[in-house]
Amino acid sequence: MSRLPGSGASTAPRPAYLSRLIGRRPAGSSQGEERAAFLFLVPWLAGLIFFLAVPLGYAVWISMTDEQLLRSGRFIGLDNYVEIFTRDPSFLHSLRITLQWVVLTTPLFMAAGLGLSLLLNQKLPGMNVFRTILYIPAVLSGVAVAILWVVLLNGDAGAVNQLLASLGWTNPPNWFEDADWAMAAVAIMGMWGVGGGAVIFLAGLQNIPPHLYEAASIDGAGPLAKFRHITLPMLSPTLFFLFINALIDSLVIIGPLIVIVGRSGSGGPEDSLLFYMLYLYRVGFVEGQLGYGAALAWILTVIGCILVYLTFKAEKRFVYYETE
Amino acid sequence: MAERTFPRLSARATGKRLGLPPGGSLLHAALVYGLLLVMTAFILLPLGWMLTAALKPDTAPVFTFPPEWFPTEYFHWQTFVETLTATDDPYLQYAFNTSILVFVNMVGAVLSNSLIAYPFARLRFRGRNLLFSLLIATLLLPGPVLLIPQFLLFFNLGWYGTYLPLTVPAFAGSAFFVFLLRQYMRTIPKELDEAARIDGAGHWTIYWRIILPLTAPALTVVAVFTFLGTWNDFFGPLLYLDDPEEFTMALALATKRSRVGTEWNLLMAANLLSIIPPLVVYFLAQKKLIGGIASVGIRG
After folding, report:
1. Angle CA(B120)–CA(B123)–CA(B125) in degrees, nearest 5?
2. Does any CB of chain A come closer than 8 Å to the CB of residue B74?
3. Beta carbons of B125 and A116 less than 8 Å apart
4. Where do the DSSP E strands lie in B115-226?
5. Rounded distance between C-alpha atoms, residue A58 and residue B109, angstroms
6. Sign (positive/negative) of CA torsion A79, A80, A82, A83?
7. Closest Cα of chain B to A180: distance in Å?
8. A26/B126 touch (CB, cutoff 8 Å), yes or no
9. For residues B57 and B210, is the Cβ–Cβ distance under 8 A?
10. Quick one: residue B141, left, alpha or beta (phi over 0 = left, psi -120 to 50 = alpha)?
C-alpha cells in the first residue's frame, strides 16, 4: 500500500462503513483542497447543526412534553398524540378542511397555470407584456394580497359583490364571513396568483423541441393529439415539480389566513377557515401549548411525507424523462 | 402580376405583417388575446380599485355602485402623505425596519450561498456527493416541524424581540440558492481556476476574484429572491417581534387591518405603498428573475 506524500494526515484506520460512505479522496485532489472545501462549507454545516438537526431532535422531545410558553414541560410520553387522535375534534376538523383544500385547489391551480402558459406560449406579438403583468401577484406579499381581497370580497359593499349585483346576482355570497363560501374566497385569492406557476410551465413548454411538433404535423396529428402525445409527456417533469410544490404549499398555507381571521387565530365563520397550520399556530403560539403544537406539527409532517411519497410513486408511471 | 404589385390586404397578409402565423389563425389569435385580456383584467382591476380607493378623500365613499376600477373622479394624493406621516402608524419607520432586514438578509444570502456553492461546484473532496444529497434532502424538509423548536431555541437564546431570528439564519445558506448557484458555477470553464492556480492563487482568491464576479447573474437572482422573500415575510416577524417600534411593513399592515374602522382609503394607501418596492425590483430585474425561476423549474 503506497501512499503519496502528504495524502493523508491520519493513519488511524477508518471504520469500513465510513470508508464506503465517504470513499477515497478523489484522484488528483490535495489535502489542501479538502480542507479548503470544508472551510467554505462551515456556514452551511453550522446552520445544519444549529438551525436544523438540533431543533429537529428537540422537536421530537418537546412533542412528548407538556411544554408551554415560559414554563418548562415535563415528559408525558405519547399523551399529546393520544389526546390529538382521541379527544381533539379541532384536529380532525382542521385536517379535513386542509385535505379538502388540497384536493380541490391543487388540480385547479395546476390546470389554470398550465392553461395560461399554453396561451402565453403562442407565437404572437405582445406575449412578453402579458407574461410580465400576469406574474405581478407572485411578487407581492401575502399580507398585501390578503388585505386587498378581504376588502374586495367584503360582503356588504365590496367591489366584487357590487359587480355581481350589477350583473344581476341580487344576493351574492358573504365570502369570508360565510361558512359555505369562505374557502372559495381563499381559492379566488389563490387564483389571482396563478401566473407564478404559469411562468414555470411556460419555460417547460419552450424547452420542448419544435421538431417533435413538426414531425407530428407531417403524420397528420391535430392540436389535441399533439397536446396529448407530445406536450403532456414532455412537460411531465415540470408538472411533477410544480405538483410537489403546490401540494406542500397548500398543506402549510397560513400567512394570508392569519390576515383574514386576525392574530388570535380564530377559525373564521363556524371554523370554516381553521386550516391545519392555523390550528397549530393557535395552539402553539396563541394558547402557548408548545408541546402539543409540536406533536401536531409531526403529524402534519408524516401526512406530508406520505403524500409526497405517493406522488413519487406515481411519478414512475406518469412522468417521462427524455434521458431514460 | 397585378396581385404582386398591389397585394390585397387579406386577413392573412395583415396577420403576417403583424407577425402572426399564417393559416386561418386570426380567429385563433383573437381567442388567445381574448382569454389573456380577461386574465389581465382579473389581475389589474383589483390593483386599479386599490389605487382608486387610496386616492379618495376621507369624505368620499370608498365603496360605490357600480365599483370604480380606475381613478376618474378623485386624485387626493394627500392620502399617501397622511399615511406616511401618521403618528399612530409610523409607516416610514416600518419601511426603514424592513429595509434593514432586507439589506442584512441580502448580504447574508449572497455571501453564504456562494461560499457554500463554491466547493460543491469547483472542488474535489471526499463526501461531496453525500453532503450534496443531504443538502438536496433539506429542500424537502417540512417547515412546520421546525417552527416550534426553532422558536424555543431562539427564545432561550434571548433572541425574542430582536432581529436576530430574522437575519442570522440567512448566513447559513439555503438549499435552494446553493443549488441554483452551484449549477451556474459549474458552467464556468475549469481552465480559469487552473490558470489562476499556476499563478499562485489559493482557493479563497479563486473564489473571490474569479468565481464570484463571474457568478454575478445568478447572484442577482439570489439577491432579488431574498429581497422579495424578506420584504414580504410575515410569519417570521409575527412570531419574533413584540415591540411595535420594531415592526416590519407586512406585520404592521396585518395588525392595522384588524384594527381598521372606516378609513379604507388610508388602509389601501398603506397597502399600495407596501407593494411598491417589490414591484420596482420586479420590473428592474424581471428578465433575470423569470429566467431564474424558469431554470429551476426545468431542472427540478
Report:
1. 90
2. no
3. no
4. none
5. 26
6. positive
7. 22
8. yes
9. no
10. beta
pTM of the predicted protein model: 0.86
Could you read off the pLDDT of A42-55 as tens digits, one per residue?
Answer: 999 999 999 999 99
CB atoms within 10 A of CB B101: 21
Greatest extent of chain B over all pairs of C-alpha atoms, in Å: 89
* ∠ Cα B153 B157 B159 (to 5°): 95
Q: What gap in Å lies between CA B211 and CA A100, rounded to an integer?
A: 48
Cα end-to-end span (Å), chain A = 40
Q: What is the dihedral of CA A70, B142, A274, A73, to 10 degrees?
A: -20
Q: Which CATH code for domain A89-318?
A: 1.10.3720.10
Q: Which residue has the cell 438540533?
A: A54
Interval A215-272: pLDDT, tens: 998 998 888 899 999 999 999 888 888 898 889 889 999 989 999 998 888 888 889 9
Distance CA B145, CA A242 (A): 22
Q: Which of A307-316, B34-43, B213-222, B261-270 has the weakest average pLDDT? A: B261-270
Pairs across A and B, CB distance < 8 A: 291
Helix (H, G, I), strand (E, B), or coil: what is residue A85?
Answer: helix
* Residue in A31, A44, A145 to test binding to B, most B beta-carbons within 10 Å: A44
Q: Looking at the partner chain, which of A58, A131, A149 has a beta carbon nearest the beta carbon of B149?
A: A58
Give CA angle at A80 (A74, A82), nearest 5°.
135
Check if the beta carbon of residue A293 is closer than 8 Å to that of residue B148.
yes
Q: A75: which strand partners?
A: A65
Q: Report angle CA A312, A314, A320 to the nearest 5 degrees.
A: 90
Residue B191 CA: distances (Å) to CA of A36, B197, B206, B217, B221: 19, 10, 12, 20, 26
pLDDT of residue B20: 46
Report the residue from A29, A150, A159 with minimal CB separation from B67. Answer: A159
Amino acid identity, position B43: I
The two most distant CA atoms of chain A are separated, in Å, by 89
Q: What is the C-alpha to C-alpha distance for residues B262 and B259, in angstroms, rounded to an integer?
A: 10
User: For B124, phi and psi rounded to 5 degrees?
Assistant: -110, 125
How far apart CA B149 and CA B162 sit, in angstroms, is: 18
Task: Give the residue range(s) of CATH 1.10.3720.10 domains in chain A.
Answer: 89-318
Distance from CA of A47 to the nearest CA of B (A): 5
Q: Which domains does chain B have, with CATH numbers?
A: 22-76 (no CATH), 91-299 (1.10.3720.10)
Is A212 exposed, middle or buried, given 0-12, 13-18 or 19+ CB atoms closer than 10 A?
Answer: middle
Number of helices (H), then strands (E), belonging to chain B: the values are 17, 0
**Complex ipTM, two decimals?**
0.85
